[in-house]
Design a protein that fits this description.
Number of helices: 18
Structural class: mainly alpha
Order of helices and strands: EEHHHHHHHHHHHHHHHHHEEH
Radius of gyration: 22 Å
Helix content: 55-70%
Number of strands: 4
Length: 497
C-alpha cells in the first residue's frame, strides 16, 4: 500500500486535505468519460422502462412534473458531491467526506451505505440481464427458466467484475460501446414515436401544460411523495464519476463537473422520453397504456412491437445494454469505496491492495463482485419475492448515503459559508436542503415499507422490504463494531479527524 500523500486545493476552511496516493492510474479519464460514466451508471433506458409505469400508476398525467420534483434533491446533493470533491478528491467519496465532517463511525457507515446499495442493485441488474438476453432467443420462453436466467445473470456479474479488474481503460471502452448501443436504440425508438405522433396516432393524447401544474398534482400530496421516491431511484448512479476521481484529469474539478452535467442530461432524457411515451401510449389502462397493470413492470416491452414493428427487438437490446452498462459501472464505486476504506484503515489492509499492472483495486473488486454474486444466487433460490423486496429497499440505502453526504458538505464547509454568496448556496443551503429532503424521503419510504401489503413478502407481520432494508443497514453497524475491536482496524476509530 502506498503511503504517499497528495494535497488538494484549499477546502475553504483551511489548507487542502491530504489524500493518500493509492496506486490507481491517474489522469486516464477526461470530462467526456466522466459524464459518460455518470450516465451509464443510472441505466437510463432500463430505469425508464421499469419505473415509468409505476410512477404513472400513482401520478397519472402529472408524471413529467414528478420526474422534475424527484430531480431537485438529487441536484442539490450533486452540488454537495462537487464541492466536497473539490476539497477532498478521494475515491472513497461519502466514506471519506463523512469521516472528515463527523468522525470515523459516520465515515464507516457512509461507506457501508454505498457498498450495500451497489451489492443489492447488482442482484437486480443480473436478474434483468439474464431475462433480457433470453428474450432475444426464439420465442422468449427461455426467459422464464429460473436456473438458466440465474446462471446467465451470475455469468454477467463475473464478466463485468473481470472487466473492472483488468483496468479502467478497458472498462471505459466497454462502457462506450454499451452506451452507444443503448442511446442509439433509444433514439430510434423515440424517433419512431415522433413519426407516429406527427402522422396522427389514433389513440394518443395531446400535450397539456396541466401535466406540469403543481397545484393539481398536490391535491394528493401522498401520491406526489410516493412518485418522487420512485423517481429518486432512476436518478441514482451519477455519482460513479466521483468514485473514479483519482483516475480523472484534474481530480478536484472534472469529476464534480461531470456529476452535475450528467444529472442535468438525465433529467432532460427522462422528461422528454416520458412526454413522448405518454402522448403516444396515454396513461390509460387498456392496451399499451402506461396505466395498464400488465405493463407496469416494463412499459417499453409492451410498446416495442407497436412502435417498431419487426424491429421491436431493438428496445430489448437497448435495455440489455443499459443493464450491462450499469452492472459494470456499479462495481466501480463499490470497489473504490472499499479500497479507500482499506487505505484509511477502516477495513483490513488487503482491501487497500491495487493490482500493480492493471492499477485497479484488485482485491476490493473481487470481493464486491463475489459478494454481489453470492447475494444474487442465494436470494434467487431462497425467495425471488424476497429478492424483489430487498431491491425495493434500495431507496433507503440511497437516501441514507446521499443525505449523509449533504449534511457532511454543510458541516465541513460551515466556516466558509459567509465568505461569498456562492459558498452559502452551493456549500450550505442547497446541500442542507437536499439532505433534509432525502432524510424525509428515508423515513416516509420506511413507513410505507412497514405495511405488510407494500411488497411481495411479509416477515412477522411487517413488510419484507422494510425488514430487508433495516436488517442490511443494521448489519453495517455490527460490522463497524467488529472492526472497532479488530487489531487490524481499531486504529481507524481512534484517530481524530
Amino acid at each position: 500500500m502506498s503511503t504517499d500523500m497528495t494535497t488538494t486545493g484549499a477546502s475553504g476552511g483551511g489548507p487542502g486535505t491530504p489524500v493518500p496516493a493509492k496506486g490507481l492510474r491517474a489522469g486516464i479519464l477526461d470530462l467526456g468519460d466522466s459524464v459518460m460514466l455518470g450516465l451509464a451508471s443510472t441505466a437510463p433506458v432500463y430505469s425508464l422502462a421499469a419505473t415509468l409505469g409505476l410512477i404513472v400508476a400513482v401520478n397519472g398525467n402529472y408524471t413529467p412534473l414528478i420526474l422534475l420534483l424527484g430531480f431537485i434533491p438529487v441536484l442539490f446533493i450533486a452540488y454537495a458531491f462537487r464541492e466536497l470533491n473539490s476539497a477532498i478528491p478521494d475515491c472513497g467519496t461519502t466514506f471519506t467526506w463523512s469521516r472528515q465532517a463527523f468522525g470515523p463511525w459516520a465515515g464507516w457507515l457512509g461507506g457501508w451505505g454505498v457498498a450495500l446499495a451497489g451489492i443489492v442493485v447488482l442482484a437486480n441488474l443480473a436478474q434483468v440481464a439474464g431475462q433480457y438476453l433470453w428474450l432475444l432467443v426464439g420465442d422468449g420462453s427461455l426467459a422464464q427458466n429460473k436456473v438458466l436466467v440465474t446462471g446467465t445473470g451470475l455469468l454477467f456479474i463475473v464478466l463485468m467484475t473481470v472487466v473492472n479488474y483488468r483496468g479502467i481503460r478497458l472498462g471505459e471502452h466497454v462502457q462506450r460501446v454499451l452506451t452507444y448501443v443503448q442511446y442509439i436504440a433509444l433514439g430510434i425508438f423515440a424517433l419512431a414515436i415522433v413519426v407516429r405522433i406527427v402522422g396522427g396516432a389514433p389513440e394518443g393524447q395531446a400535450f397539456d401544460f396541466e401535466w406540469f401544474n403543481p397545484v393539481g398534482a398536490f391535491t394528493d400530496p401522498g401520491a406526489v411523495v410516493h412518485g418522487a421516491l420512485l423517481a429518486l431511484f432512476i436518478y441514482w448512479g451519477w455519482d460513479t464519476c466521483l468514485a473514479v476521481n483519482e483516475e480523472t484529469e484534474e481530480p478536484s474539478k472534472t469529476p464534480g463537473r461531470g456529476a452535475v452535467i450528467s444529472a442535468f442530461v438525465l433529467v432532460a432524457i427522462y422528461v422528454s422520453v416520458a412526454l413522448l411515451v405518454m402522448m403516444y401510449a396515454t396513461v390509460g389502462s387498456e392496451g399499451i397504456g402506461l396505466g395498464n397493470e400488465a405493463n407496469k413492470d416494463d412499459v417499453f416491452l409492451a410498446m416495442k412491437d407497436v412502435v417498431l414493428g419487426p424491429w421491436g427487438w431493438l428496445i430489448v437490446v437497448a435495455v440489455l445494454a443499459s443493464v450491462l452498462s450499469s452492472t459494470q459501472t456499479t462495481i466501480l464505486p463499490t470497489a473504490r469505496g472499499t479500497l479507500s476504506m482499506g487505505v484509511h484503515g477502516a477495513l483490513p489492509s488487503r482491501f487497500a491492495e491495487v493490482h500493480p499492472r492493471n492499477q485497479t483495486p484488485g482485491f476490493s473488486t473481487q470481493v464486491m463482485g463475489g459478494a454481489a454474486a453470492a447475494y444474487y444466487v442465494a436470494m434467487s433460490f431462497l425467495s425471488e419475492n424476497l429478492l424483489a423486496d430487498s431491491i425495493s429497499a434500495i431507496s433507503l440505502f440511497i437516501a441514507f448515503y446521499y443525505a449523509l453526504t449533504g449534511f457532511a458538505c454543510f458541516w465541513y464547509f460551515r466556516g466558509t459559508l459567509r465568505e461569498s454568496a456562492r459558498n452559502l448556496w452551493f456549500r450550505g443551503i442547497l446541500p442542507l436542503v437536499g439532505a433534509l429532503l432525502l432524510t424525509a424521503a428515508f423515513f416516509i419510504s420506511a413507513v410505507q415499507m412497514w405495511d405488510p401489503a407494500y411488497g411481495d413478502t411479509q416477515i412477522f407481520g411487517v413488510g419484507g422490504a422494510f425488514v430487508s432494508g433495516v436488517v442490511l443497514l443494521a448489519l453495517g453497524v455490527v460490522l463497524a463494531a467488529v472492526c472497532r475491536f479488530l487489531p487490524a482496524t481499531h486504529g481507524y476509530f481512534e484517530v481524530k479527524r
